[in-house]
Structure of Nudix hydrolase 8 isoform X1:
Amino acid sequence: MIARGLLRPTLVCSKSIRWKVKDKLRFDFCDQLDSRPSGLCSRNRSFSFSTFRTMCSQTLFVGTKDRFQGITVDSTKEPCEILAFPDILKVFFFNVGSLNKWREDKVRGVWFKVALADSGWVPHLAQNGFRYHHAQASYVMMVAWLPENEVCNIPQYASTMVGVGAIVMNDKRQILVVSEKYRLFPHWKLPGGYVEPGEEIVNAAEREVLEETSVRAKFKQMICFRHVHNFTFGCSDMYFIVALTPEPGQEVLKKCDREIDAVEWMNVEEYLNHPNVHSTNRFFVSKFLEYEASGISLTYHEDTHQILKKSYLVYSLDLGQHKKMDSPNDTISQSNKQ
């Protein structure tokens, strides 16, 4: 690659730019690029001198390395004019572009996080072997696998959505139920909704109950979960049922007018036999009552990953009043006594 300081223009016109390198080598930039559709100096393409300043000041994309020998380029951190982008990506000076450099460096996966304002990059990336991986409201992530003799092991984007439903029962053995405004058929269901990004399941249950019914309630235990495929947006879906305990003085209900048509405290026996209650919801409530009677509960404790230093919740079964199984050592000890 020719260093930035070694190049200076000797001729600028609408069709060609010639560069002088240390007054010894004349390099016809446009003649090299004119043969390619993406060339900056194509006769059918308009350009400005600022584009060439960009190409001189920004040689190749750098990106951020990851532990899998991959590179991620963020368009907000490495801005590039759209006219200069194709050549910085593939062919800069003397056929040395970012992609060629990454191949020489044995980079495996190359990721481009393209902000909405830089969406002009997308067709050029697609033409150079990049595919869509995922998208959010403000960006699209594209990826290319460079090794030709290695099977691509880039994981698919998250394919499962997570929702919560809450069983809230008061001292009168009434459970909190709602009827949605936008529904396919009459029903009474458990309050709940989707877990937001970065939100714990238990916090999502508490939030959804408060938003839909105005009831403040705290986590008691996890009951069960339902797993289904090809659901919303073609994703798999996991629906966690969480038992909450209402705080004192929560008898007065106020529904969310935007989403909820009706909300009420319903006797648990009535709910289990109501014609407008889905059989799956009956099952959820039945399991809750079973756990309540047996003393079994599924609770959590907080922990931190030793290497990544990220906190997480670990859910485990508490047998409560049930007699715990003897440990292997106790069993061996009893056998020796016999």
Notes: The two ends are 83 Å apart (CA to CA). The chain is about 25% helix and 30% strand. The domain at 64-145 is CATH 3.40.630.30 (Aminopeptidase).
